[in-house]
Amino acid sequence: MSAVQEAAGRPMVKAEGVRKSFGSLEVLKGIDLEVAPREVMCVIGPSGSGKSTFLRCVNHLEKINSGRLSVDGHLVGYREKGGKLYELRESEVAAQRRDIGMVFQRFNLFPHMTALENVTEAPAQVKGIRKETCRDMGAALLERVGLGNRVHSYPNQLSGGQQQRVAIARALAMEPKLMLFDEPTSALDPELVGEVLDVMRGLAESGMTMVVVTHEMGFAREVGDTLVFMDDGVVVEAGDPRQVLTEPKHDRTRSFLSKVL
Fold first, then answer.
1. pTM (2 decimals)?
2. CA nearest 69: which of 12, 127, 140?
3. Which of 51, 107, 139, 153 lies 20 to 30 angstroms, CA to CA, from 22?
């Protein structure tokens, strides 16, 4: 099998028995999941179920306590030698994170930088790309998320939905192979949610591999390839979004959906 064929056949994300505790509180209790290249996986569940913690483990913002977590065939945060796992240096972890874009609930934009400067800062500083090239790329990305006319605006001159779209453009500027979204619309006024979901819908159509923690059931139904329901640190149910939403197999899933649909 060629390297290209092997890459095509392996999952973009693979979690095997992933456990995570904060002190005596076990938040993830043995997560097994796979996300294929170009797949959009939506993760739903009640507050405190471990959804966001799992997402943060995927790019090693949180260290797992046991199990294995790989992105594109490479262990996240660790290397294996002689059957044992050894934690990578912070510089090596940072290099891994370049391939993983993450968009949070809060936009975390630099308030003293324009939209364009927020988007181009990381490629210029981390990748060493020439400023002129960065500017052209950043302007194109802001155009892609519908903000081509706001490149020189500062965050406080933008709505919440516009700031979140800048945050998405900033993540895309590093040319990630995987995008993680942690409830990206939960901090927005309801009328601004659609503009962010439209950008995410466009990303999915372009073939971006995405893991989306969300409360937006319509988006999960329309855009998701897989829907995962988590509760109390475990995956209760996973499958085709339409099937899970209309004919859930588990009582716990039915109970949750009866409150949110």
1. 0.93
2. 12
3. 107
Q: Assign 129 a pLDDT band (cuts: 50, 70, 90).
A: confident
Asked whether residue 126 carries a pLDDT value surpassing 90, the answer given is no
In Å, how far are 2, 55, 70, 165, 224 from 58, measured between CA atoms? 27, 5, 8, 22, 19
Residues 6+ apart with CB under 8 A from 210: 39, 40, 41, 178, 179, 180, 181, 200, 203, 204
Q: How far is Cα 166 from Cα 62, in angstroms, rounded to an integer?
A: 25
Strand pairing report for 13-22 and 226-231: unpaired
Residue 241 has pLDDT above 60, yes or no: yes
In the chain, what is the straight-line distance between the N-terminal and C-terminal CA atoms, in Å? 46
133-182 confidence digits (pLDDT tens): 999 999 999 999 999 999 999 999 999 999 999 999 999 999 999 999 99
Closest CA to 209 of 185, 182, 181: 181
Residues 6+ apart with CB under 8 A from 90: none
Tokens 């969300």 sit at which residue?
A: 214
**Single-letter amino acid, residue 200:** M
What's the one-letter identity of residue 153?
S
* Nearest Cα residue to 11 out of 241, 182, 209: 209
Question: Going by C-beta distance under 8 Å and a sequence separation of 6 or more, which residues neighbour residue 175?
Answer: none
Question: How far is C-alpha 109 from the geometric centre of its chain's CA atoms?
Answer: 17
Closest to 169 measured CA to CA, from 121, 233, 219, 126: 121
User: Per residue in 177-194, pLDDT tens?
Assistant: 999 999 999 989 999 999
Per-residue CA distances from 180 to 85, 209, 247, 252 (Å): 25, 9, 27, 26
